[in-house]
Amino acid sequence: MATLDLLSINKSFGAAKVLHDISLAIEDKEFVVFVGPSGCGKSTLLRIIAGLEETTSGQIMIDGKDVSDAHPVDRGISMVFQSYALYPHLTVYENIAFPLRVQKMPQPEMDAAVNRAAEILQLTDKLQLKPGQLSGGQRQRVAIGRSIVRNPKVFLFDEPLSNLDAALRGDMRVELSQLHRSLEATMVYVTHDQVEAMTMADRIVVLNAGRVEQFGTPMELYHHPKTKFVASFIGQPNMNLLPAKVLGSDAKSLKVELDGGHQMVVPVEAGLVSKGDNVEVGIRPEHVSLGDSGLSVTVNVLERLGGVSITYGAVGNGTRFCASLPGDAAIREGTPVTLAVNPDDCHVFDANGDVLSRQAAPELAG
Ligand SMILES: Nc1ncnc2c1ncn2[C@@H]1O[C@H](COP(=O)(O)OP(=O)(O)OP(=O)(O)O)[C@@H](O)[C@H]1O
């Protein structure tokens, strides 16, 4: 398998610049997920790695070798598409074997390679069927099988699960994670679904308008988002962002008043923020609990999922607020509740959307 390095990749389509100076070092055997909203450039970046799209400038290195000008088939990569791209008139065996037939691989070797892939993907008893006789999940596995037999240095996946229903997507997520472990392969996976990113990735690249917003492990992004964009993109339900005013600060903490009047001291450095400035305080729905003091929230909609109760309501001047409370929480639609918030769990974003650095030990600010 292989390392994959992107060095200052820029891409424009005519006058439109869609990728801005992207540099990433992806390690051998890593599962890296590119995630971001529609149009942020993730598919273009993947296609550039595959050689299906040219860069405007920058270099692509696979295992330390510059492949920027190499033909796609010479890069040692294999790509699985959202659309499966199977041949409907060929059997599963022939679909998986297709790249090996093109290479004119001898039949015994081809049988061994296809059978191994079919075994890994639990398709052994489907090899003589046509794609039309398979479920969506099985078809996607055939497409993955066609990648595996090529024994690539790097696997690329472009939204491979988006045509599947929710339950099957969940199963395929687990299968892909297991596949990654058993193949010990370097994999790059594109999705707009942050749950896929969080559950499968060793590290996630969050893209925003053609720029890398943050590159880190799922838990780094969840606990230490560098920007409001990352904070609100990672985590489900989305992080709440409450307008707040800075009342004061010292070296280690910031005192704020949230929309709705609740005041708290958050253990973050003030940086360039000072008294009177407007900031936003990020509070994850799962980081609040029913309490005697805290945020006063009117519950508009309540979704009881059994394990958790999700409430959608409003604080202060109507700012939306979502809370995820454990179990069958004792709350009712249309009634106000008080939600306790631990300042250690809060994030503060300045007017540019950048997070204020966190301090370990909170201290009261004046
Ligand atoms: N061939 C092309 N010609 C012109 N513009 C393009 C071309 N391909 C992509 N773009 C533009 O580049 C930007 C990034 O597109 P890209 O498909 O990489 O986004 P994405 O993040 O994968 O989005 P999605 O999740 O919707 O697939 C978009 O603004 C898109 O319109």
UniProtKB/TrEMBL annotation:
ABC transporter domain residues: 4-234
Name of the protein in its database record: Carbohydrate ABC transporter ATP-binding protein, CUT1 family
Record keyword Cytoplasm present: no
Keywords: ATP-binding, Nucleotide-binding, Transport
Entry's Gene Ontology cellular component terms: ATP-binding cassette (ABC) transporter complex, substrate-binding subunit-containing; maltose transport complex
Classification of source organism: Bacteria, Pseudomonadati, Pseudomonadota, Alphaproteobacteria, Rhodobacterales
SUPFAM superfamilies the record matches: MOP-like, P-loop containing nucleoside triphosphate hydrolases
Record SMART domains: AAA
